[in-house]
Amino acid sequence: MADPYATLGVKRDAGEAEIKKAYRKLAKELHPDRNKTNPKASERFSTVTRAYDILTDKAKRAQYDRGEIDGEGNPRAPFGYGGGPRAGPQGGFGQGGFGGGGFPRGGPAAGFPGAEEVDLSDIFDGLFGGAAGGPRGRGGARRAPQKGADIGYRLSVPFEDAATLKPQRVTLSGGKTLDIKIPPGVQEGAKIRLAGQGQAGPGGTGDAIVTIHVAAHRYFRRDGAHIRLDLPVSLDEAVLGAKVKVPTVDGTVMLSVPKGSSSGKVLRLGGRGFTAKGGKRGDQLVTLMVDLPAEDEALARFAEGWSWRGKGNPRGGLGV
Length: 320
What we know:
Blueprint: H1 4-8, H2 16-30, H3 39-55, H4 58-65, H5 121-128, E1 151-157, H6 159-164, E2 168-171, E3 177-180, E4 191-194, E5 208-214, E6 221-223, E7 226-234, H7 235-240, E8 242-248, E9 251-257, E10 266-269, E11 284-291, H8 297-304
Parallel strand pairs: 1-5, 7-11
Antiparallel strand pairs: 2-3, 4-5, 6-7, 8-9, 10-11
């Protein structure tokens, strides 16, 4: 059985951080997504993952260091079985000790003068819970076969799709494609588990773990369940009021701009945001930004002769 320390290339006194660093490096090199035509890499990926599982589990690591389990995580054979500690003269088996099969040297009856055949199966059945029973843990409880390793994937979801919960298609390492549902309240880094879509193992197939990345948008911004948008409007639209087109994650809608609107005024489009965990959608918050032309002589003359010029202080609320 492979030595977990040797598998990960770390010393026996390696700390958890060093073990994790070694595993990340190997897992990146051996991941099935990078080695679709190399089955040996996939096998080694499973071996590396198994070694990592043992060394990052304090109880299992202590058991392995004491020789109680092997590199697969299975219990090791007790004394005298498979070439373990030998019985001396006091052990009742003579100087020869145990042979490679767990019996006294010379066969099942060796070391028992005058005996034609000695059946030791009852002794070993008591130790191992039956020759065909498979490995058992302490107390005789059968140790469950180990499942295959989980496989991680990263899925980039467009901003609009995340907001409207549009199903996404993911391609697995074997080429299989699945359509997955985006959960309500989805956040950056959310994980979706696809049962039975990982590596095969003696105890069943592992899972696929899909980590969601919500892509940034060029003009939408997320604010919890709400979506914010800075909307440019012309001077006449702000002064006189108007109906203008506004983009949303659901498509273009019409928005009424009230007369005398200033830059910074926020208007609300209900139910145009992200879907929260409870199923209710947030709103789209539209901030008006009055857009003035860089050079307009008529507008400049109007401002110079404007009766309100120099009156009042629009920054009074700031204490200046």
